[in-house]
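Re: the 109-residue chain
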Amino acid sequence: MAFHDDVVDSVTADITHIGLLTSSDPGDEITGGGYTRLAPTYAAASSGEADITATLEFDGPANEGPVTHLLFVRDNADDVVRPAASPQSFNSDGRLDLVSAPVTSAFPD
């Protein structure tokens, strides 16, 4: 599993920001309401997986969504789009808290 942990740690070290999308198209990133991409901090990988160490508190347009995909912005590489664990929308105060954005490594069976 050490190899998988090394791969995940390498990937998470390159993630500079996370953005929110309303589809799998990077052009469908949330706009308005003070929205901006946020910089995550990842824990060290364990068992081939790492997750953010603190909730990312996004501001945006009230009741906007649902957010169905996450945009992982990386240094010197193409951005990566992945489905969110479960669709969420901004609340009536224009807030959406992202509590998990896991990165995993595994070989297919």
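The radius of gyration is 14 Å.
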